[in-house]
Amino acid sequence: MIQPAPSRAGSLPLIGSEIAFDFTNTASGRGHESQQDHLRCGADVVVWARHARVLAPGDGDVAKQMLAADTALADRLLARALELRETIHRTGAVIAAGGEPTAEDRDRLTAEHAACLTRARLTPHQGGFVWAWAAADGPAEAILGPVTLSALTLLTQSDLSRIKQCQGEHCGWLFFDVTKNKSRRWCEMEVCGNRAKQKALRARLRPRAEAVE
Ligand SMILES: [Zn+2]
């Protein structure tokens, strides 16, 4: 049996333009044999949250210690994180394809938001107010709260035609297209864009009889 590559939760490219999509991009190749999941335990979720700056370093340390001391808490965080991630991924993918998210997924997002708000504090910020979470009040909510809020803000306040899924084969990553003319197609040009270009080039160069793809 092939050993899975180590989790890259702490080094994944953050190309989603929004926290919610960076979070969905902690898995790739969903449903394909090349599938990789970088969230494999509660600690991976904390590692990603620090990497994506959902948690400040100090809060990351607090969350890490709380999870290390309570395996049930770590397991619950992972289960909630994966359910939220897949809910946001389904929602984003269906919108990118021109469809409408299911009522079940909208309800799941609403329920997670409500659960996270029980640990949030309305906090002054730059002349206004924001929801803020402290890891000590609940490490799961401190991580999943900002992610859920990002997803809900996208759904309620953004131009949905900018929500896109990478066109790379078996990629599945989501991003919010902030280009002026909404022309972005790839998660990363250097990864999926070039791969697609090379594939098209090979198809053009190969004699027809040898075409197997
Ligand atoms: Zn891609």
UniProtKB/TrEMBL annotation:
Q: Which Pfam families match?
A: ABATE, zf-CGNR
Q: Which InterPro entries match?
A: ABATE (IPR010852), ABATE_dom_sf (IPR023286), Znf_CGNR (IPR021005)
Cite the SUPFAM superfamilies for this sequence. Jann2411-like
Q: Which Gene3D superfamilies match?
A: Jann2411-like domain (1.10.3300.10)
Q: What is this protein called?
A: RNA-binding Zn ribbon-like protein
Residue limits of the Zinc finger CGNR domain?
Answer: 162-204
